[in-house]
Amino acid sequence: MPGNTFGKLFKITTWGESHGKGVGVVIDGCPPGIPLDETVIQPMMDRRKPGGSAASTRRKEPDRAIIMSGVFEGMTTGTPIMIMLYNKDADSSAYKPYTDLFRPGHGDITYQAKYGIRDWRGGGRASARETAARVAAGAVAKAVLDREKITVSAYTTELGGIRAKKHDWDAMGKHKFGCPDADAAEEMEKRVLDVKKRGDSLGGIVEISATGVPSGLGDPVFDKLDAELAKALMSIGAVKGIEIGAGFEAARMTGSENNDPIIPEGFSTNNAGGILAGISNGDGIVMRVAVKPIPSIAIEQKTIDRFGNPAAISTKGRHDISAIPRINVVCEAMVCLVLADHLLRQRTTNNK
C-alpha cells in the first residue's frame, strides 16, 4: 500500500492499524540539535485523546508517545526518529457482525474494490486512529517551528450548524469544543447531546491559523504552499473541503475588493490568507476545513454485503459523535508538517 509517506525534506511515514498492536511514525529529515523528548510530544497527543467532550468515543487510549530512535540526551541527532503508540483499548468484537457488510460513509467498499481484502476491525488504515501518528510527527515539526517563532493553532468555528460569533482566545481553552465563543460552545454541547440521543452524528468547520511565517515559503507551479497545505489537510479522512483566506467568498468579490492593498507596514487586508502565487507573503496564513459527520451511526441504513446482496446496518461500537474537537489538533499537526518541510526547502534555496 503506497501513499503512507508525506513531505520532501521533512518526511514522515505513518504505519499501523486501528485494532493492531499499535500505530506509529518514522520522521526523516529532522535537523539535529532540536530539543525533544516525550514531554514535548505528549501535550499535542493529549489534545487528540478521546474523552475530552460529549462528542468523543468511549475508547480509552492513553496515547503515550514513546521515542524509539533519533534522540540522544534530549536532542535530535539528525537520524530517523521513530515514535511508537501502543493500542491499549482496542475491542474488535463490535465489528464482527459487519465483516461482510459495507458501512455507508466509510472506505469499506472502496478498499475492497482496490485491494480485494480489507481489515474490518475499526477500518484498519482508514481509521481515524492513524491520525495519532500524524499528531506525534506534528509535535516534532512544531518543535522545529518553535525555533523560528512560528505558531500554528486550530479552533472550532462551527459545529452542527452552530457558528462562533466571537473570537475570545482566553475562552477557547476553557470549553471542550475548542471554540473561541463561550456562548456558542454551550450551544454546541447541547446540540451534540441531542444528536447523540438520536444515534446520529455531526460535522463542522475548523479554522487553522499560522503566525510568524516568513515570506518566501512555497514553490511555483505544482508545489505551491497553498496546494501543499490543501493536500495535507484533505488527506485527513473526515475533511471534505478547504478554504484559504477569503476562500469561496472571493468568487463573490470584485478584483478591487479581493486584492489586498500593500502599504509600508505590510497588507491592509488578508483575503489572500497569507499566500500569493503559492508563496507565503509574511502575513498570517488562515485556512478553514469542512469536517463531515462521523459515518458510524446507530440509525439503520441501507447497504450491501461484499457479494452484492442488499442489507441493512446499524453501526454499534464506541464512536465519536463528531470528529470535532479531536480533529483540531490533527489539522494543526498537518500544517506544522508542511511549514517545517517548506522552511527546510527554503534554506536550500537560500543556501543557508
Short précis:
It contains eight helices and 18 strands. With 352 residues, it is α+β, with helices and mostly antiparallel strands.
Folded structure, characterized:
A five-stranded antiparallel β-sheet has the order 1-2-3-7-4, covered by helices on one side. It has helices spanning 38-48, 108-115, 131-146, 169-172, 182-197, 225-234, 255-258, 326-349; strands at residues 5-6, 11-16, 22-28, 66-69, 71-72, 75-76, 81-86, 151-159, 162-163, 204-211, 239-244, 262-263, 266-267, 275-276, 279-280, 285-291, 301-304, 310-313. With 352 residues, the chain is α+β, with helices and mostly antiparallel strands. It has a single domain, classed as Chorismate synthase AroC (Chorismate synthase, AroC fold, 4-Layer Sandwich).
Please supply descriptive tags for the structure shown above.
8 helices, five-stranded antiparallel β-sheet, alpha+beta, Chorismate synthase, AroC fold, 352 residues, single chain
List the helices and strands and how they pair.
Blueprint: E1 5-6, E2 11-16, E3 22-28, H1 38-48, E4 66-69, E5 71-72, E6 75-76, E7 81-86, H2 108-115, H3 131-146, E8 151-159, E9 162-163, H4 169-172, H5 182-197, E10 204-211, H6 225-234, E11 239-244, H7 255-258, E12 262-263, E13 266-267, E14 275-276, E15 279-280, E16 285-291, E17 301-304, E18 310-313, H8 326-349
Antiparallel strand pairs: 1-2, 2-3, 3-7, 4-7, 5-6, 8-9, 8-10, 10-16, 11-16, 12-13, 14-15, 17-18
